[in-house]
């Protein structure tokens, strides 16, 4: 079964609607028979998406750094709970196990995960779909920033287009499926020198 990594919040200070959104995503993944790859926490949006996915019958994989097992309260209900040595290993393992990436509203950790996997896609290191589900436009300032960077020549149009923005769960699921269909015809090639330079911080 295909697997989707969901990047989302672990903060308990957020509004309940974000946890409800995460649960809707979990159920949507389960209805399609997809596997969930999560950050391995049992709190906030991270916990909500995992519990809902399991409730719907989906296989769930949680990947969490040892230092965060207590802080984010590890999801011991996961079908597979992988404890890594650090954050870098966690992200690498999530990237390896996922066939697509879905970002929900979240904090700096969520943004870091999104940007890292997006940079890798822009450098042709993978061709997996990257989708943002942003119904309340919390992440819209990022879209505006990227648009401005495209106009200034810092980001290529093709790189900006590799991130798909959606506003509903159904739209996000469809974008992932469309991305898989499109990836079937993607020709892998090494990044050019200019692409490497554009991806540098």
From TrEMBL:
UniProt xrefs under InterPro entries: LOG, LOG_fam
Q: What class of enzyme is it?
A: hydrolase
- What name has this protein been given in UniProt? Cytokinin riboside 5'-monophosphate phosphoribohydrolase
Q: What is the lineage of its organism?
A: Bacteria, Bacillati, Actinomycetota, Actinomycetes, Sporichthyales
Sorted UniProt keywords: Cytokinin biosynthesis, Hydrolase
User: Could you confirm whether the keyword tRNA processing appears in this record?
Assistant: no
Task: Establish whether keyword Hydrolase is in the entry.
Answer: yes
Q: Which Gene3D superfamilies match?
A: 3.40.50.450
Q: Which family does it belong to?
A: Belongs to the LOG family.
One Pfam match, given by its short name, reads: Lysine_decarbox
**What is the species listed in this Swiss-Prot or TrEMBL entry?**
Longivirga aurantiaca
Task: Give the superkingdom in one word.
Answer: Bacteria
Give the enzyme's EC designation.
3.2.2.n1
Catalyzed reaction equations: 9-ribosyl-trans-zeatin 5'-phosphate + H2O = trans-zeatin + D-ribose 5-phosphate; N(6)-(dimethylallyl)adenosine 5'-phosphate + H2O = N(6)-dimethylallyladenine + D-ribose 5-phosphate
């Amino acid at each position: 079964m295909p697997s989707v990594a969901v990047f989302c919040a672990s903060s308990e200070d957020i509004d309940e609607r974000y946890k409800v959104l995460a649960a809707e995503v979990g159920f949507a993944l389960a209805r399609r028979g997809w596997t969930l790859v999560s950050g391995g926490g049992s709190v906030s949006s991270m916990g909500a998406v995992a519990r809902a996915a399991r409730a719907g019958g989906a296989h769930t994989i949680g990947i969490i750094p040892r230092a965060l097992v207590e802080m984010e309260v590890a999801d011991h209900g996961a079908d597979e709970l992988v404890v890594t040595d650090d954050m870098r290993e966690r992200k690498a393992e999530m990237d390896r196990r996922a066939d697509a990436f879905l970002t929900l509203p979240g904090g700096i950790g969520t943004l870091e995960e999104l940007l890292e996997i997006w940079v890798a896609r822009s450098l042709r290191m993978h061709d997996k779909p990257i989708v943002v589900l942003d119904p309340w436009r919390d992440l819209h300032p990022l879209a505006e920033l990227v648009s401005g960077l495209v106009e200034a020549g810092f980001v290529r149009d093709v790189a900006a287009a590799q991130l798909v923005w959606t506003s509903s769960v159904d739209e996000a699921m469809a974008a992932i499926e469309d991305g898989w269909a499109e990836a079937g015809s993607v020709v892998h090639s090494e990044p050019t020198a200019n692409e490497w330079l554009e991806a540098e911080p």
